[in-house]
Each structure stands twice: as structure tokens, then as C-alpha cells.
Design a protein that fits this description.
heterodimer, A: 64 residues, mainly alpha, elongated, B: 820 residues, Cytochrome Bc1 Complex, Chain D, domain 2, two-stranded antiparallel sheet, 60% helix
Chain lengths: 64, 820
């Protein structure tokens, strides 16, 4: 951890690390959000219903 | 493709269900007893093993790790096998997991009652049990990942993402927070000190809520709610977004438990920011759960299992909105150290965790035993009783929290605290504690009804340990086709990659908080005046930890006028650099003790007062709810451990001189002799080696190093002033009644309700007055106090008129009553 103590020698300016961290999170969140929302609904229905298609559930009622 | 035959392991699920039911009864029963202790201290039974300080951690550990833990494992083992269409990876690991976990629970109960504790909330277990937890947890994870690897389905369903996050999250938290230096089989010191220990502990504590009480339950929700409602989850897209957001954000929020406390502002700001952000993914989960029932609410009417699941998800939504609100600094000053937090966690525990567990059991047990639930009516009775119990529990405690907070900060028009005696603010809310007992009994009654109902269901059904099934073998899907498969869908069939990404998402939050706290020295400015604990003080501190005093007493004065007026100077980060572990506490059932050693401060009490108070708190004030600690005057300090403790502290960086361990016992005995002599002067004979002496030494260390200006030598004996102010006694009934009220609120602690004195504290009704009994002399004595004897100068708390009323009550009413 010496590298950490050498890079972070002072509390001064520490906020920049958190601002960068937040920006990375927000950017990733937007990318994941957009990509997820663009997934096909028909694929989603198949995945959602898969746990009910185990031969043990009653007749499945879909959400649509 | 040809189907493969295999057998589900139902026996391990049944074992975990039975353990859930047994430990649920135990955990709730202990909770009811703990609640009784706060309303009626006689239920501490006068035994060292049954005080609230020891019983409360047993309750929290029994509920979290025994009841909830076993329920999680039951739910995970059943749903994983079904979702992955395979038997658990290893029967041996399953068995080791089950019996290992039950062993941990029994060891936890025994050691906590015996006083073996690290003193860190929700992580109280000592190092050998910590190691056992690590081994059992690894077995659980190994079994889980092995099962994922040998699965017969292509993609890993959302519920299992949450189980993976649970395994990884708890593993990280437990290992990092449990770094401790053992000095014996039953005693260790946290390697972190003070503020660093606090940050690590609440990073753990907050995320124990996240990764033991939230993520596994979201996994259970994603499986059991659709199964019980026979409808698919509302939105798979939402499940992806809220999974990654939630596991990433949760790890940052821990410092919201330490607002206004001795922690760098940047850490507090991070905790607040990420707590507010957490509302979004949390509500994403709640919405996904509730909307799963869209168009199927009629089924909720007919099914107790669904009713419980709905209450569970609703309570989750309420708790995850309330939590971030409590993280706002202005709200936090009300909720922290009051019963608000207790109410909050019980909405989560009884509502969210309880609701999901009960719903799951009512659905799962008939399924496992191939039977119908014995009585839907009894299940509905359980539902209404437990829902009522949650309300009866939470409402009085919210009321108690606001009441006590308002009383703490209430000032008189003259600028004095309206309720300077902490006990007044507690007495006011004790009736709420009595109501809480009713809530606990209701919840327990409902639980017992469920146990009966499920037992009858089990008895009526038929159970097979190994349930036959068949499914086609898994065919590797090969590399990703970018057109047909999204990245996340691809990731869902790549268990190792998925786990690594989850681990990274979990690690970031903890790393950015803990690493700077430990490695940037300027985070913890040291104070030259703060010295290490003497050997006797260190022994006393260990007793403080052992007795669980931190459960009721904080050691953290926040920078509010209403706290500094009541307790003394606000706490600084540099005060705690030798505290392994930190003892800031999280609830004030008793007053803050951070300034108990500041002679002349409002919290100082002399050795004789502490002795009498530990021996019988109710004798000092009959309204006190503190248990007695009379065994401290009987049991000896274990001097054989003292040198080891000094060496351990040296290893942790406490600057004792080289070779100090060899003379530590001599120093301890010398200091103890001084306290023993002091007590003897007050008519109390006690061997210097008794634990009581060490505890008093520790009390007198608290805050002493940083006290400024007010310090008065403890051996100062105040002499009567020759010139007193002219005081005219007030003999009308209103003034005497006001004087009586002040006396009952404040003076009874030393002089008794009848004014005849307690133990060595003076009788105010006889003819013997050390400093004279003229109105002026008594007024002066009350006004200036006698700091060496622990009597504070009441001119800092009362107006001149109030002191005159008090003088009048003492010299007119008490003297009159005595002469009759």
C-alpha cells in the first residue's frame, strides 16, 4: 500500500477522486441503462417466463 | 437431446427450514426479554450473564445470523437447485455449511453471554468464531459456485446474481472488519483505532444490512414472488439496472452512521451523497416486486404467503426511503442516538426480512412436503398479528425518539437546559418501552402460530430427501454473437466473469473510503495531550467492552450546544487514536460518557458515586433502568493478561515505552491503591485488585486528557466560604413544589429521594452540615458545587430563583419532614 500513501499524501484536494469516481459511475450507468432499454421485449419475456416453465408451476399468466 | 436424471437435495433445505423456526423463536424471545429489561430493569435478574449489555447482542446476532441466516440458506438451496436444474454441487459442503453454521450460532450465544466480545456492533464475535465463520462462508460460496458451474441451464437467472453478490459482499466485509490481534482465546483487539475503526466498522455494519439483509432477500424475492403469484417478474430490464446500481452504491454509504461525529467531512459527505442515490435502485427493486402482482392482486386476497411477500416488499420500500432521509444531516441529528434507528431497523427486520421469510415458508413448506398448508386461516391470523406488531413496535419508538430529542435540546427562557438530568428524558419514554414489549409478544405469538401451522403441514405431508427430476444436459453456447446476444445476456452465462465484475463493483466503494482513512495521516490529527491508557484504565476499558456498556452509552459529544452544555467539550478525532476498538456507540439509553473523567465538568462523578452506582443504580435513583454490576466488586482483575495486553497495544502502535509490559502490573497496582484509598476515605473498603477499581479508573480517564481550564485537582476539598450571598427563603407552596421537583430530578442521585443521603453522600435532613446550613451557605453550596466530590456547580444549569427554590425545599420541607 506504499503507492497509495505516496499518491495520497494529503487530504487536500481529495474531492477530485470522488468527483472522478462519480462521473465514471454516472457515465457507466447511462451506457448500461441505454443498452438495457434497447434489449428486445420478446427476449425479455422468454427470460422472465423461464423460471415458471419448470413443470411444477400452474399455467403461467404473463404480465402482458 | 436426451434428458439426464438427477435428484434435488431437499433434505438440506428442510434442515435449514427447521433451524430457521427454532432460532426464530429463540431470537424473538431474547428480544422480548431485552425489551422487558428496558421497561422493567428487574428483568436483568441481577446476574452478569443476563444484563441488557450482554443480552442485546445475543438478540441481534440470533435474529440476523441465526434466524435470518438459516432462512436465507433454506431459500437459496431450494431455489438454486430448481433454477439451475441440478443438485447442489457437494453434499459434504452442504452438510458442513449447515452444521458449521449451527455451531457458530451456539458458540456466539454462549460467548456473548459470557462477555467475550469485540465490542463492535453486529461483529461482536471473537476471533476463533470469526475464523470459523470464514471457513463456513467459503464452503457456502464454493458450493454455490460449484453448482453454477455444473448447471443444466444456459443463463443464470436474476435471483442468483443476488446470491453471488451476497456471498462476495459478506466475504469482503467480514474479512476486512475482522482484522484483530488476539491476546488469548477469548480476547482480541481490533487492528484499527478510533475514527479508522469507526469507518471500517460502519462500512461493515451498514453493508451487513446490505449484503445479509437486503441482497439475498432481493434474490429470494425474484424467485419466490413470481412463483407464489405464478407470474413472471415485472421487468427483467429493471432487474439488471437495479442490480448493478445497488451493489455498487451500497458500499459507499457507511459513513452516514457517523454524521456530526469525529470523522473527516469528506467521509461524511460521501456517506450522505451515496445514501440519497441509493433510493433509486432500492425503489427499482420494490417497484419490480410490487408490479409483478399487476393484474393478480386478487390472489393476494386468498394467499397468506403473497400477503406476507407484499408486506415485505412494501416495508423494503419504506425502509429504503427512510434510510436515506435519516442520512440527511439535519434529520440525522434527531434519529441518531435515539430510538428512531431502532424503529427503522425493526421496520426492515420485522417487515422486509420477516415478510419475505414468512411468505417463502408458507409457499415452500407445502411444496416440499407435497401437501396443502394445514390452515390458511391460521396463516392469515399470523399475518394480521405480525403486521399489527410492526405498527405497535414502530409508532411508540418514533414517538419516543422525537420526545427524547426535543427534551435533550429544550432550553429555559434563561438559557439553561430544561432537562439537565438525562434520566428525566429517559423516564418520559419508558412507557413507550412497555408498549414495545406488547409488540414483541404479539410478534412472537404470530411466529408460534406459524410454527404450529407448518409443523402440522409437515406432519400431514410426505417428504422425500432426494427428489427425482430430469433435464437436458447443458450444451456450451460458444462465443458471443453480437447480433443475437447482448453483452449482459452473454455475461449471464459466464459465471466467473459475472462474479469478477460483481467483486469489482463491490470493492470500489469500500476501498475509496477505507484506504484514505488509514493511509492519509492528516485525516487523524493527533493531540499532544492525549496519552495511552494506563494498565488499570486499559483493564477498565476491557471491562466496559465486556459488559456491553456501549450498547447504552455513547462516547461521542456532537458539536451542538445542547450536547456540549449537557456533556462538555465536543469530541475530536485525535482523542481516539489509542482506542482499539472505538466505543462511540449508536444509542443513548444512558448519558454520553465521553467526558465522565473531566473534573468539574457536568458528567464528572467521584469514585464513591461510581462505586455506589455500579452496586445499585436504583438506590441512587429509583427511576434508573441501568442493571447493577455488583460482581465488579467481587471479581478480580486478571493480572496475568495485563502484560500481554500492553504488548498487543505496542504492536498496534500505542507508544508505551520499551519493556513497559514488565512493569505494567506494578503501575496498575499503584494506581488501583490510590483509588482504593480514595474509596476508603468515603467509608468504602475494597481490594485494589477488584474489577470495580479498574472500571472507576477508566471512567475517570474519559475526556480527561483534553479537558481544558475546568480541570480541578481531584483531591481538592472545598472549604466553606465565609461570605455568602444574602438569601431569602421562599416558603410559598408553589416555590417549594418547584424546589421539590428540581430535587427529585437532580439531587436524588446522591442524596436520595428523602434527602437522607446514599452511602457516603451527605444527609440533608440532620443537623450535621459540613459547610453550614444557613440559607446563604446552602445556596452557595448548590451554586458552586463540589467538583472533587462530583457535585457540579448548578449555577450553570439553574437560575438563581431555581437555586433559591431548591435551597428553600431543603431547609424548609426536608428539615420539617425530618423533625416530625
Amino acid at each position: 500500500m506504499k503507492i497509495v500513501s505516496e499518491v495520497l499524501t494529503s487530504i487536500e484536494g481529495i474531492r477530485i477522486f470522488y468527483i472522478i469516481g462519480l462521473l465514471i459511475f454516472v457515465a457507466l450507468f447511462i451506457v448500461i441503462f441505454i443498452r438495457t432499454m434497447r434489449m428486445k421485449n420478446s427476449d425479455m419475456e422468454e427470460i422472465k417466463n423461464s423460471i415458471l416453465m419448470d413443470g411444477e408451476s400452474e399455467e403461467v399468466t404473463t404480465s402482458n | 437431446m436426451e434428458n439426464q436424471k438427477f435428484y434435488y437435495d431437499n433434505k438440506i433445505v428442510k434442515l435449514f427450514i427447521l433451524a430457521t423456526l427454532v432460532w426464530g423463536v429463540v431470537g424473538i424471545l431474547v428480544g422480548v426479554i431485552a425489551a422487558l429489561q428496558l421497561a422493567f430493569p428487574i428483568f436483568n435478574f441481577g446476574l452478569e450473564y443476563t444484563t441488557f449489555g450482554r443480552l442485546r447482542p445475543v438478540h441481534t446476532n440470533a435474529i440476523i445470523f441465526a434466524f435470518v441466516g438459516n432462512a436465507i440458506f433454506a431459500g437459496v438451496y431450494y431455489s438454486m437447485q430448481k433454477l439451475l436444474k441440478t443438485r447442489m454441487f457437494s453434499d459434504a459442503l452442504s452438510k458442513f455449511h449447515f452444521w458449521g453454521w449451527q455451531t457458530i450460532i451456539v458458540l456466539a450465544a454462549v460467548t456473548l453471554l459470557a462477555g467475550f466480545t469485540t465490542g463492535k456492533e453486529y461483529a461482536e464475535l471473537e476471533w476463533p468464531i470469526d475464523i470459523l465463520i470464514t471457513l463456513v462462508w467459503v464452503a457456502f460460496g464454493w458450493n454455490m459456485i460449484g453448482t453454477i458451474i455444473v448447471r443444466r441451464v444456459q443463463h443464470i437467472y436474476a435471483a442468483i446474481w443476488w446470491y453471488l453478490a451476497t456471498f462476495l459482499g459478506v466475504a469482503i466485509l467480514h474479512v476486512v472488519n475482522s482484522f484483530e490481534l488476539p491476546i488469548s482465546l477469548f480476547k482480541s483487539y481490533s487492528i484499527y483505532a478510533g475514527a479508522q475503526d469507526a469507518v471500517v466498522q460502519w462500512w461493515y455494519g451498514h453493508n451487513a444490512v446490505a449484503f445479509f439483509l437486503t441482497t439475498p432477500f432481493l434474490g429470494l424475492m425474484y424467485y419466490y414472488l413470481p412463483k407464489a403469484a405464478n407470474r413472471p417478474i415485472y421487468s427483467y430490464k429493471l432487474s439488471i439496472i437495479h442490480f448493478w446500481s445497488l451493489i455498487f452504491l451500497y458500499m459507499w454509504a457507511g459513513p452516514h452512521h457517523l454524521l456530526y461525529q469525529a470523522l473527516p467531512e469528506w467521509a461524511q459527505a460521501l456517506g450522505v451523497t451515496f445514501s440519497i442515490m441509493l433510493i433509486a435502485p432500492s425503489w427499482g427493486g420494490m417497484i419490480n416486486g410490487l408490479l409483478t402482482l399487476r393484474g393478480a392482486w386478487d390472489r393476494v386476497r386468498d394467499s397468506a404467503a403473497l400477503k406476507f411477500l407484499v408486506v415485505g416488499v412494501t416495508a423494503y420500500g419504506m425502509s429504503t426511503f427512510e434510510g436515506p432521509m435519516m442520512s440527511l444531516k439535519t434529520v440525522n441529528q434527531i434519529t441518531h442516538f435515539t430510538d428512531w434507528t431502532i424503529a427503522h431497523v425493526h421496520i426492515g427486520g420485522m417487515g422486509w426480512n420477516g415478510g419475505i421469510i414468512f411468505g417463502m415458508l408458507y409457499w415452500l413448506v407445502p411444496k416440499l412436503f407435497k401437501s396443502k398448508l394445514f390452515s390458511e386461516k391460521l396463516a392469515n391470523i399470523h399475518f394480521w398479528i405480525s403486521t399489527l406488531a410492526i405498527l405497535v413496535y414502530a409508532i411508540p419508538l418514533y414517538w419516543a425518539a422525537v420526545t427524547q430529542w426535543l427534551m435533550w435540546r429544550e432550553y429555559t427562557p434563561e438559557g439553561f437546559l430544561a432537562y439537565p438530568n438525562f434520566l428525566e428524558t429517559l423516564t418520559q419514554i419508558v412507557p413507550m418501552y412497555a408498549v414495545r414489549v406488547v409488540a414483541g409478544v404479539l410478534f412472537l405469538a404470530g411466529f408460534l402460530i406459524m410454527v404450529f401451522n407448518l409443523a402440522k403441514t409437515m406432519a400431514a405431508g410426505s417428504f422425500v430427501n432426494n427428489e427425482a427430476s430430469e433435464a437436458p444436459a447443458l450444451v456450451p453456447a460458444g462465443s458471443r454473437n453480437p447480433v443475437r446476444e447482448t453483452i449482459h445476456r452473454w455475461l449471464e452465462r459466464k459465471a466467473v466473469r459475472f462474479s469478477i465484475l460483481t467483486f469489482i463493483a463491490l470493492s470500489i466503494g469500500g476501498a475509496v473510503e477505507i484506504i484514505p482513512m488509514i493511509f492519509i495521516k492528516s485525516n487523524v490529527p493527533t493531540l499532544d495531550s492525549v496519552t495511552p491508557y494506563t494498565p488499570l484504565e486499559l483493564e477498565g476499558r476491557d471491562l466496559y467492552v465486556k459488559e456491553g456498556c456501549y450498547v447504552c452509552h455513547s462516547q461521542m459529544v456532537r458539536p451542538f450546544r445542547w450536547e456540549t452544555d449537557r456533556y462538555g467539550e465536543y469530541s475530536k478525532i485525535g482523542e481516539f487514536v489509542y482506542d482499539h476498538p472505538y466505543q462511540w456507540g449508536s444509542r443513548r439509553t444512558g448519558p454520553d460518557l465521553a467526558r465522565a473523567g473531566v473534573v468539574g465538568g457536568p458528567m464528572y462523578k467521584n469514585a464513591a458515586w461510581h462505586y455506589n452506582h455500579f452496586m445499585d443504580p436504583q438506590k441512587m435513583n429509583e427511576a434508573s433502568i441501568m442493571p447493577n454490576y455488583a460482581w465488579l466488586a467481587v471479581k478480580n482483575i486478571d493480572l496475568s493478561q495485563t502484560p500481554k495486553k500492553i504488548r498487543a497495544m505496542q504492536k498496534l502502535g500505542v507508544p508505551y515505552e520499551e519493556g513497559y509490559d514488565k512493569k505494567a502490573v506494578d503501575d496498575l497496582l499503584a494506581q488501583a491503591q490510590g483509588i482504593s484509598d480514595d474509596l476508603k476515605a468515603s467509608g468504602i473498603e475494597i481490594d485494589p485488585k477488584k474489577q470495580m477499581v479498574a472500571m472507576i479508573a477508566y471512567m475517570h480517564k474519559l475526556g480527561r486528557d483534553i479537558s481544558t481550564g475546568t480541570e480541578v485537582p481531584a483531591d481538592t476539598i472545598q472549604t466553606a466560604s465565609t461570605e455568602f450571598k444574602e438569601v431569602q427563603l421562599l416558603n410559598n407552596p408553589e416555590d417549594l413544589a418547584a424546589g421539590k421537583q428540581l430535587f427529585q430530578n437532580t439531587c436524588v442521585a446522591c442524596h436520595g429521594a428523602d434527602g437522607k443521603g446514599i452511602a457516603t453522600f451527605p444527609n440533608l435532613t440532620d443537623e450535621e452540615w459540613i459547610h453550614g446550613n444557613t440559607p446563604g451557605a446552602v445556596f452557595h453550596q448548590i451554586s458552586e458545587g463540589n467538583v472533587a466530590k462530583g457535585m457540579v456547580p448548578y449555577k450553570t444549569m439553574f437560575t438563581e430563583k431555581q437555586i433559591t427554590q431548591l435551597t428553600s425545599y431543603v431547609l424548609i420541607t426536608l428539615q420539617d419532614e425530618n423533625s416530625k
